[in-house]
Amino acid sequence: MRKPLIAGNWKLHNTVEESCQLAQALVTDLNDVTETEIVIAPVFTSLSDVGKICAGTTVQLAAQNCHCMDDGAYTGEVSVPLLANVGCSHIIVGHSERRQYFGETDHFINVKARAIIKHGLTAIICVGETLEQRESGELFEVIATQVRGALEEISPEQMSQVVLAYEPVWAIGTGKTASSEEAEEVHAYIRGLLHGSYGAEIAAQCRILYGGSVKPGNISELMAEDDIDGALVGGASLKADDFAAIVRYKKTLKMAAT
User: What domains appear along the chain, each with residue ranges and CATH number?
Assistant: First the structure.
C-alpha cells in the first residue's frame, strides 16, 4: 500500500517572515496527520528558518532545486549537502519551469537526482508534456523519454528514494486541470514504464504524484484513481487553509462505469 504524499511547491513566493508564518500555521493544523506524508518547499532563503519550525513535526522540508555537485566554483548554486544541512528531506527536480526557463535537460535532471539519492534524500522528479505535444500525439513519447532519462543509472535499490510527479505543462498555473481520467491514463502509463524497467514490485511501490492546478475541490476525485498517489500543489499551497484541506482530502471510491 503506497502512502499518499502531498507536497506544496511555494515557487518564488514569500519572504522569510511570511514563509515562517505559513509553515507554523501548517504545522499547527496538520501535526495530527499521520496517514499522509506532507512536504513543503519554500524558497532557498527561507529553508533554514522553516526547517526549524518543521523539525520534529509531521511536515517535512523540501528544496525546489539543487545543483549536482557537492561544492566547487559554481556561483549561485546550492548543493544537496547544504540543503540536507538545513533540514531538507526532499528535493524537487525537473519541474517544467526549470526545463522551460533554464534549459534543463533530461540528462542534467538525472545527474541531480542521482546526487540527491547519493546523499540519502528523496528526489521528487517532475515530468509532463506541453499542450502542443499532447495535441500532436506525442504525449506518451515525451513522457517515456523524460521518465527513462531521469531514471538513467538509478538502481532498483535506489528507487525507494524516488517520487515521480506528472505535471502536464498546460495545467500548471493556468487554472486548467487534467481530468482525473486523463491524469490516471498517464499515471498508469508511467507505472507501466517502471514495470518494464524495474519489475512489478518496484512499479507497485513507487509513488506518482499529480500536479497542475490541484485544489481542495478536485483532490478527492484525483486521489480516487488507482495510480495517483498524491499531489504536487502550486498556488493552493500558499494558503494554509487550502493546503490543509488538500492534505485532509476525503477518501472516495471511484464509481465503476455501467
Answer: 5-247 (3.20.20.70)
